[in-house]
């Protein structure tokens, strides 16, 4: 199997309205529109599968790390892989379920897919999980989709463009400091050791700490209803799609040291875990970093 | 202001037909209450959808819970309908407290227009409108309504619970190690309650967070096995009782006693520890581990 070593370098410049330098980046707006178009088809296809299985009884296969995997998860990923193989046979794919696939020796493009982020919400009939789709170009996410197929809500973030929710442009909201912030995280149990202590420093200072949203919390942040999302142990397929969505709505998303989130996608990538902080306003972001004290 | 001292005693037998002579109302009355209950939920839902994800003023209540204009407007819309349809009934609203025209009222409507205000405020569509009708202190009608998703759970004494008109049922679950547990937040347990909750949480298959009343609705529908919470107010659990019992589940306090609140003009709004389960076996396992004596 061929491999490509592409460094994911994420666009730290949250001036999402700067036009892409097409010569520098090797693709143009027409290419990007085509990628967005196929991205929508992926989300449509995954959504069809997911709606068929949501709140129906089905087999649950326990994966080694004790996360339930459902037939819906696997079927939704297959439906997306099939569309990509038809439309972009030279692109690589990294799926949460099926790992790395690549036909070519070299490829600048990698699609990173998580068909159901928030499998436990899905399994308990709670309609706040998401299908996550990212397209990396030379390691940098240029397209990110968060899709909630039951509520029919789709956030699309595109390099150089304003993020939209169901076609409407959205924006994060202002928030000067932690004491004014509404914070989301999925669960208190996803922080261990030092991460738990660091998180608690921030959580104790925010206006309201809330739980239980998975990727949907980041979508709410991009839409301007939430100020801060802090999580630990996220896999690349769970944050890469968030980057264009959040940056394109005026927000910021990095690791806990304030560094760009960076993952090399290849046939022999370890799927490392990352600590992620996202904010709608640079001031509350800085306040969060100052309190995380993650050096 | 008149008061009525009615003891809330909850019906543990959800499939037993109402003894109409004993209870002082019949099925026609009950159908009418359900009909008006639906109108209440429709009205509150209209208001709520207007305000969801719009910017609006947030007034901080003394206990630091954000109150929204939507909350107050939705409650007013329900009170108005009740005053038109059942002027002799009493009302206890989360926002506006006790209202009663008569000296005595066998019937008390208990309303929480938005349970899960923090979810509402952050644009998360999993809050609920809660509506309960008490007859001589016993909840005979309970509604959980999610107006954005357009999902309505209706529990009626002596009848099977429905979700959007379809009958639903809890699912089987033999013990904690197989159970999916929900609670709203780890921060809502203090002192001994936190310790007791942790005993159960450490044994369940998966502990999950963040659902408010929606978790109880999911339990009634058979997708969740256990919901355990501390510090719930009566307007936040009374409506859940007919919904859960009517789907085959059980809901009590942490000692296994029936949830019991006297609604009157001078009721303290006490807080309760609540456990709900879809299966009596996992319920018993939870009680055994809560060890709340």
From TrEMBL, chain A:
GO biological process: L-histidine biosynthetic process
Recorded superkingdom: Eukaryota
Gene3D superfamilies assigned to the protein according to its UniProt record, in alphabetical order: 3.40.190.80, Fructose-1,6-Bisphosphatase, subunit A, domain 1 (3.30.540.10)
Catalytic activity of the protein: L-histidinol phosphate + H2O = L-histidinol + phosphate
Root EC class: hydrolase
Cofactors demanded by this protein: Mg(2+)
Swiss-Prot/TrEMBL keywords: Amino-acid biosynthesis, Histidine biosynthesis, Hydrolase, Magnesium, Metal-binding
Keyword Hydrolase carried by entry: yes
Name of protein: histidinol-phosphatase
Taxonomic source organism: Olea europaea subsp. europaea
From TrEMBL, chain B:
Catalysed transformations (reactions): L-histidinol phosphate + H2O = L-histidinol + phosphate
Pfam family, one: Inositol_P
Residues given in the record as Mg(2+) binding sites: 94, 112, 114-115, 236
GO molecular function: histidinol-phosphatase activity; metal ion binding
Family indicated by similarity: Belongs to the inositol monophosphatase superfamily.
Protein name (database record): histidinol-phosphatase
Gene Ontology biological process terms from the UniProt entry: L-histidine biosynthetic process
Pathway membership: Amino-acid biosynthesis; L-histidine biosynthesis; L-histidine from 5-phospho-alpha-D-ribose 1-diphosphate: step 8/9
Taxonomic lineage of the native organism: Eukaryota, Viridiplantae, Streptophyta, Embryophyta, Tracheophyta
NCBIfam families from the UniProt entry: his_9_HisN
Source species of the chain: Olea europaea subsp. europaea
Repeat in keyword set: no
